[in-house]
TrEMBL record:
The keyword Magnesium applies. Its EC number is 2.7.8.28. It comes from Kitasatospora xanthocidica. CDD domains: CofD_like (cd07186). Pfam families: CofD. Keywords: Magnesium, Transferase. One of its GO terms (molecular function) is LPPG:FO 2-phospho-L-lactate transferase activity. InterPro entries: CofD (IPR002882), CofD-like_dom_sf (IPR038136), FbiA/CofD (IPR010115). This is 2-phospho-L-lactate transferase.
Length: 319
């Protein structure tokens, strides 16, 4: 079976680990990764979501943190601080730096981000084909108003430095409107047997991938069933601040509202957590098949069970 999954960072990566445990060796998984979180620091290109997927599936992730490398050291960061060079709020460890050096060196030599990602995956062997959503530069910015007035900040600054404490007024994936899907992305979607939306952030992860012209249209037109898993449980994100960015796009932070925002033209099936069982009827009334199952990714087996439920629902809604 050919499975395509759209993925952000932590939520996407953890789900994919369960999906890999749930499928067989004959199944092929293509992951279309969000690159709207990418940031340039110290002349290096950092791709947090691609790296989280690569490190998580390749066994190099810092488990508790959910991002960055295991057994990390911080000498470069300390040295940068001595020079008074920031940003101090963004954590790039020494081992992680190597990834960004290799990536940036290859990009400077003229390779595309997809080629670079493929090269990095030769080391990490994630067990999936990892494609960036686009080789073109896309950067999500967030409009905020604080004591400095109304301004746009890079998504990473909003999330990591400001902890999403100030309201997001608008989310703009800068560059998305002229970005092209990376090679292989549209083909993978068209040829998929199943398309999955892991419990990734619906606005700044999945939403950004869908904002690349052609991708949303390809998913909607794909013959494969499309099944999503809710990142919202009991009216709140399991982790992170998805409620803040959902508010910016006028969507309530509930499993039901997120499903309806994707809509029946895009998703055929939707999984909510058992605590949200009461919302199943409303989602189904909107034309999306819905089931309530445990959606907490507490360990790989629990996550594999979520993946099995998503694949089972895909079979039920297959046209
Ligand atoms: P990011 O790029 O690191 O923010 O990661 P993603 O966009 O892929 O995923 C973030 C989303 O994962 C958040 O909105 C969380 O609510 C969701 N999430 C994290 N852990 C779990 C979990 O155990 N179960 C579910 N259903 N969602 C989760
Ligand atoms: Ca992210």
């Amino acid at each position: 079976m050919r499975i395509v999954a759209l993925a952000g960072g932590i939520g996407g990566a953890r789900f994919l680990r369960g999906l890999l445990a749930a499928v067989g060796p004959q199944d092929e998984i293509t992951v279309i990764g969000n690159t709207g979180d990418d940031i340039h620091l110290y002349g290096l290109k950092v791709c947090p979501d691609l790296d989280t997927v690569m490190y998580t599936l390749g066994g190099g992730i810092h488990e508790e943190q959910g991002w960055g490398r295991t057994d990390e050291t911080w000498s470069i960061k300390a040295e940068m601080k001595e020079y008074g060079v920031g940003p101090e709020w963004f954590g790039l460890g020494d081992r992680d730096f190597a990834t960004h050096l290799v990536r940036s060196q290859m990009l400077t030599a003229g390779y595309s981000l997809s080629q670079v990602t493929e090269a990095l995956c030769v080391r990490w062997k994630p067990g999936v084909r990892l494609l960036p959503m686009s080789d073109d530069r896309v950067e999500t910015h967030v409009r905020i108003t604080d004591e400095q007035g109304t301004r746009a900040v890079h998504f990473q600054e909003y999330w990591v430095r400001l902890h999403a404490e100030v309201d997001a007024e608008a989310i703009v994936p800068v560059g998305a409107d002229t970005a092209k899907p990376a090679p292989g992305v549209l083909e993978a979607i068209a040829e998929a047997d199943v398309i999955l939306f892991p419990p990734s952030n619906p606005v700044v992860s999945i939403g950004t991938i869908l904002a690349v012209p052609g991708i949303r249209e390809a998913v909607a037109a794909a013959p494969a069933p499309v099944v999503g898993l809710s990142p919202i449980i009991g009216g709140a994100p399991v982790r992170g601040m998805a409620d803040k960015v959902l508010a910016a796009v006028g969507v309530e932070a509930t499993a039901e509202a997120v499903a309806l925002d994707y809509g029946p033209a895009l998703v055929d099936g939707w999984l909510v957590d058992t605590v949200d069982e009461a919302s199943v009827a409303a989602v189904e009334a909107a034309g999306i098949a819905c089931r309530a199952v445990p959606l907490l990714m507490t360990d790989v087996e629990a996550t594999a069970e979520m993946a099995r439920a998503a694949l089972a629902l895909a079979e039920q809604v297959r046209k």
